[in-house]
Amino acid sequence: MEMVNALGRRKSAVARIFVTEGTGKITINNKDLQDYFPSSILQYVVKQPLAKLDVVEKYDIKVNLDGGGFTGQSQALRLAIARALVKINADDKKALRSEGFLTRDAREVERKKPGQPKARRRFQFSKR
């Protein structure tokens, strides 16, 4: 198998991944998965598409992660991994789609408006 690359985005986070056959090692920005995401919940989120297809220890994944916070980054990485797995084997698309791993979450932060403290919050109205 040759190297397969894919892209995943979530909020302002961008994950570029390169998948090769290997032993299940995930390297993010030259750090191990456990070092980059110390939280077990975020590690679980990243490995969800691999666990769904039972290929956790079949592929080595090298990741370039940029932008956003840790939650957005982990979800961007999950999308990228799911897209790469579909490139490797198109038959897996139905299983990943049913779990929602191939859907790009398009929600972004709404901009702050002038004359208000936040996007929707207004300063307190005083009648007198």
Which fold name fills CATH's third level, the topology? Ribosomal Protein S5, domain 2
Q: How many structural domains are formed by the residues?
A: 1
Per CATH, the architecture is 2-Layer Sandwich
The run of helices and strands is EEEEHHEHH
Going across the major beta sheet, what is the strand order? 1-2-5-3-4
Layout of helices and strands:
Blueprint: E1 4-10, E2 13-21, E3 26-28, E4 31-32, H1 33-36, H2 40-52, E5 59-66, H3 70-88, H4 93-99
Parallel strand pairs: 3-5
Antiparallel strand pairs: 1-2, 2-5, 3-4
Helix pairs in contact: 2-3
Gist?
This protein has 128 residues and is α+β, with helices and mostly antiparallel strands.
Attribute tags:
alpha+beta; 128 residues; Ribosomal Protein S5, domain 2
What does this structure look like?
With 128 residues, the protein is of the alpha+beta class. The protein has one domain: Ribosomal Protein S5, domain 2 (2-Layer Sandwich). Helix content is 34%, strand content 23%. It is built from four helices and five strands. It has helices at residues 33-36, 40-52, 70-88, 93-99, and strands at 4-10, 13-21, 26-28, 31-32, 59-66. A five-stranded mixed sheet has the order 1-2-5-3-4. A hairpin with a 2-residue loop joins β1 (4-10) and β2 (13-21). α2 packs parallel to α3 (70-88). The model has no long low-confidence stretch (mean pLDDT 95).
